Amino acid sequence: MNWNEEVDVIIAGSGGVLAGAYTAAREGLDVAVFEASDKFGGTTAYSGGGMWFPCNPVLKRAGVDDTVEDALTYYQSVVGDRTPKDIQEAFVRGGAPLVEYLEQDANIEFALLPWPDYYGKAPKAKIDGMRHMTAAPLTAEEVGSLRDLLRPPLDTDRLGAPLPESLIGGQALIARLVMAISAYPNASLHLNSTLVELVVEDGAVTGAVVERDGQRIAVRARRGVVLGTGGFEANEEMRKEFGVPGSAEDTMGVPTNIGLGLRAAIAAGADVDLVDQAWWSPGITHPDGRSTFSLWITGGIFVDSNGERFVNESGPYDRIGRTALGALEEGNLGLPYWIIFDDREGEVPPIKSTSVTVVEAEEFVAEGLWHSADTLQELAEKIGVPSNSLAATVARYNGFVADGVDLDYGRGDEAYDRAFFGGHSPMVPIESGPFHAAALGLSDLGTKGGIRTDAVGRALDRSGAPIAGLYASGNTMAAPSGEAYPAGGNPIATSMLFSHLAVQDIAKADRALRAIDNDSAISS
Question: What band does 48 get if pLDDT is binned at 50, 70 and 90?
Answer without folding.
Answer: very high
